[in-house]
Amino acid sequence: MGCSPRSTWMWSTPPSRPEPVETRGYRVVMSILPHSTPAAVPEGVRPMGEAPFLAPGDQISWHYRKPGWQPGDASTITPVRVVRDDERGLVAWLAPGTLQEGQGTPAGERVRTVPLERRWLEPRSRIIEEWWGNGILRIAPAGAAWSVWLFWSEADGSDWQFAGWYVNLENAHLRTDRDTYSSDHILDVEIEPDGRVHLKDEDELIAAVEQGRLTSEQAAQIERHADAAIASFRDGDWPFAEEWRDWRPDPSWSVPELMGLSDLRTR
């Protein structure tokens, strides 16, 4: 699904209030999904958790690409600051006000504006969007088919109110020095601060199978990944440790800039 020629670059209209949670030398590697689908990543990628590592405060770009992505296709690219980068995985901070490249409709609207019965049939365009919510702490454990996102409902001064965990099901990340790559798996897990667990976007996963975005076997594997992520939470694995609920960003950090932003033009 390529970009519409007249909407290769569009600026999205910022929402009136925060939303809840919303080339060179490429080679093909295989997705972790069963009946593997190819995803394009740069040469020289390595699994998450392998050196060299970045230092706290360094910038890294967090990419989500569809299986079979080709240069010019829409993707999601989010610039974040490194909190920790080591053999356990990557911890990164998405600051309020961050501009990211996102995936939109040919008209430049958010994908969720497309009715569910057509959502996985519509082409995607490349848009720029701003994260209007409070910051997010993202944790990508090495080798895991998910990342863990921590949210705060208020983040003003010392008054941070933890709002829960969001487990984004996705391919295990592949890294270069300044970029990390994955593919989103549609289904997600929401975990409230008191430990109550809910699946999110089950209807989208069903629609993705019906519309040919995923096979039923792939959807079943994604559901198993959800079960494994929930088990990780209940086991108290390190991404869910208390230290991350209490973590705060370095106040000296600036909002990272989306690479190449100055070269973008609306059409």
Describe the structure in your own words:
This protein has a single domain (25-244), classed as FomD barrel-like fold. Residues 1-38 have low confidence and may be disordered. A hairpin with a 2-residue loop joins strand 6 and strand 7. It has helices at 202-210, 216-234, 242-245; strands spanning 10-11, 26-30, 38-42, 46-47, 59-64, 76-86, 89-94, 99-104, 125-130, 136-141, 146-156, 159-170, 174-175, 179-182, 184-191, 197-200. The chain has 267 residues and is mainly beta. The chain is built from three helices and 16 strands. An eleven-stranded mixed sheet has the order 4-13-14-5-6-7-10-11-12-15-16. Strands 1-9-8 form a three-stranded mixed sheet, with no helix packed on it.
Strand order of the biggest β-sheet: 4-13-14-5-6-7-10-11-12-15-16
The CATH superfamily bears the name FomD-like
In terms of structural class, how would the helical and strand content be classed? mainly beta
Q: What's the helical proportion of residues?
A: 10-25%
Shape descriptor: globular
Assembly state: single chain
Text of the CATH class = Mainly Beta
Biggest β-sheet: count, sense, barrel? 11 strands, mixed
Strand content: 35-45%
Whole-number total of structural domains: 1
Taking all Cα atoms into account, the compactness measure Rg is 18 Å
End-to-end distance? 19 Å
Sketch the topology as an H/E string, one letter per element. EEEEEEEEEEEEEEEEHHH
Number of helices: 3
Quick check: average pLDDT?
Answer: 84
Pfam families: DUF402
Domain DUF402: 114-236
Organism: Microbacterium foliorum
Keywords: Hydrolase
